[in-house]
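Weekly sync notes, structure subgroup
Attendees: PM, AL, DS (notes)

Item 1: joint prediction request from the bench team. They want all two components modeled as one assembly rather than separately. Inputs as received:
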Amino acid sequence: MGNSSSLMLRDEEIEQISGETEFNRNQIVRLYSRFLSLDKKGQGFLEREDLMNVPELAVNPLGDRIVDAFFTLAGKDDKHLNFRQFVQVLAYFQPIDKTKRNENNDRSKKLKFAFMMYDLNRNGYITREEFKVILNSMVGANITADQLDKIADRTIEEADADQDGKISFEEFCKAMEKTDIEDKMSIRFLN
Amino acid sequence: STIAASAMLLQFVVGLASLFYLPFIFSIVLLVIFLSATGLTLGIRKRIAHLLIAIFEWGSDVSESEEQVSESVGETREETAEEQPAPIRKRHSSSDLRIIKREHSELIDSKLLGQDVLKKKSTVSVLVDDSLDFISAGIESIIEDNVTSRFSAEQLPSWNLLSRTKYTFMHISPKLTILWILGFYFRYLILVPIRVCLFCVGMASMVFITSAVGYVPNKAVKKWLNRRAMLTSMRIFSRSFSSIVNFHDRHNRATQGGICVANHTSPMDVMILSCDNCYAMVGQKQGGILGFIQKSLSKAEHHIWFERSEAKDRMAVSNRMREHVEDPTKLPIIIFPEGTCINNTSVMMFKKGSFEISETIYPVAMKYDSRLGDAFWNSSKQSYGEYMWMMMTSWAITADVWYLPPMTRMEGEDSIAFARRVKKAIAKAGGLVDLEWDGALKREKVSNKLIALQQKLYFERLSTRTSMCSEITDDSIDILKNMSEDDRNQLFKCLDEADDDNAVIRKVSEFIPEVAALVTEAVKAEE
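Output from the run, pasted for the record:
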């Protein structure tokens, strides 16, 4: 029936979101169109299922971790995601503009998002067990429990500075110092 | 004021209608019947289509320039004059109108296929690196993905004066509004009545003529009559939707049985293909009107209609189709292996069933031009009736059909590979994106098999390209240490006897002191 994305988004809302997230008007409108197409039941908000309906996300090993992060960052109601919250989370992945003051803040936000992928129970630490769960979702039943343990051990060891058997956010950031987070976790819009 | 203008226009039209309307419509219907029966064309539809497209492009020029004027409030005149680029008259293609650069998704794809350049070697660093890419690729797929976009109508670069394709963020000027009103009246008051008449005439002719033909005793005459009847009716139908079809490479048409395979976009695919060639249809037996139509069609020619219970039995289906295909007196079958309607920007996975029936396939590629009317049927959003009404009230349906040369299964090629090869050829001919995703994802979730496949690919990446292997062979050092002396000596003797292995052990000893120690021990023991 054609792309009848009748814009239920008012201009003031677009202005507001643009101010908060630094997306420009065009990008916000395109994201809104995408939001509407993900919201198949037309409820005005997204649920976990709506995001997991994207096949490419469903086959991504970190797929449900990502969806989890969306809903955690959205705030109080962690079952429903409205458009504003949707865009706010996507804003974490904007390329860092080195001319603006907030460079360190942006880098820290991206690292926080990545940290959330591993820290399953959100207690601020990545434990060996949590890492094993992630590793398991990436390789599935193809490795033995033994190999799984070994790799998990080695990984935790490398980053665990204070030797407490788990990785805190500071240790995580330190371990990621050499990685070009800005490049790895930025998504460029075509204009 | 626009309301007043449209009221006046309406009165004028009503006046005209009472004088000229009915005779006008009837004469057009008769003309169409004559043209369809003889297979001629006056080229009127094509000319009107060109005119309409020129009008749309003028209209989008108007709206673009007005948009730029309104945005340039605050900028100087000179700046806007410089910044107005010449509008690019692009034919919409499947890769247009993307929002983001999908760098991370492409990177992940190349990693899983083993095609990337690996900078780090240790398993841990590769894992961490890859997991960041997985995260970004996941977010990219939330913003824009290759699959869900294929199940909704494609976007147009310039508005075609149908309110169904209007984006409200496009600036609408008074000129465009008037154009739209004129277009609206033209479509609903002139085109729709003609089309509805033609549709009824076409339906009636198809049903009654084929029933009549069924009584003809002579087989050859019957076949010829059926062909003429079907072609005529289908041409009337296609004119009833104002479809403009270009057939390419007609020498590749299937003429003596066989299976034709095509990409699926709308229920009208069969109608369009039947304007040029007669096909045997395949489908489930329906009740009611559709069932009546099916029965009449079957009187004149062999079609394959399955009972609901039979349809579930794949063997029975295959056998019946195979019987039909191997009989050269019967018409070629037309099959759509995608299984569902896709929005014509891509071709999705072909189900292998149809490729198991015959060794030779006649592929057909179809590409619709949605500037004058989008033929895609989104069955989850529209019912069949709504869809037909949408088609009747569009400007026209434009399509290109390419007949590809027949393809035969190669030695040792299985049905899945054969299906993939044919799909690739069809996608290439139609200028469509070739995707391996299953069209069933329109309604179903991703199957666990796909997820397991991804995991397997990732595991292969880790085990063959990172040092995970050497980490595993740490175990072999332990094993060597735990072996009894005799066994170890035996082992090293075997290794000694092989020519190159000495060099191997020497090299390994340089890196792993434990092995060096073992080797010297063994050598000492031998002496």
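Discussion: The mean pLDDT of chain B is 78.
Action: AL to compare against the crosslinking data before next sync.
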